[in-house]
Write a structure and sequence with these properties.
Blueprint lengths: L7 E6 L15 H13 L9 E6 L4 H7 L2 H4 L10 H15 L8 E5 L5 H17 L5 E3 L24 E3 L7
Parallel strand pairs: 1-2, 2-3
Antiparallel strand pairs: 4-5
Amino acid sequence: MYENVDVIVFTVSLTEFGTVCYEDEMTNRAWESLECFSRVVNLPVLKDVPFILIFGKADALPFMTKRVRFGTVFRNYSGNDDDCAAIVNYLKDRYLKEYKGTETGKILPVVLNVLDPKAVENVLQIMVDVILEGNTSSFTFKMWDGFNVKPTLFKSKPNHFNDITITRKKGKWGK
């Protein structure tokens, strides 16, 4: 069933910590997502398959932190509930800790603002590169800098990437 899988793309909404699942209206979506990721990333049949872990809705995270305190959902989070970069780093580390294997370069975390077409294009190209290379080791995580911008509702389309979310270890990735 999984013998021809080149890469797994797992998406996580950065705002789901403030919502519950539709199915039971009790289970926190962030916890369900984390549990699902843990089950999938540790499947023996996928042990050699690279994962791209996309954290989406980065542009909406500042709004959710005003509505719901992150620390009430993730009680061992010790950072500031308004510090979006700290929240993303916490979630990235939390997801990476779920992987129980020993293969390095298996998981590539990406923070994505889908309202930025260039960022989406870059992530799609990274997916192609990961498929061709068979691993994620030539990429490295870079924090999205849009959290330093004061959130504004319904103004212009956000475009807060200094460059892109991912850089190649051998220099900048891009055209």
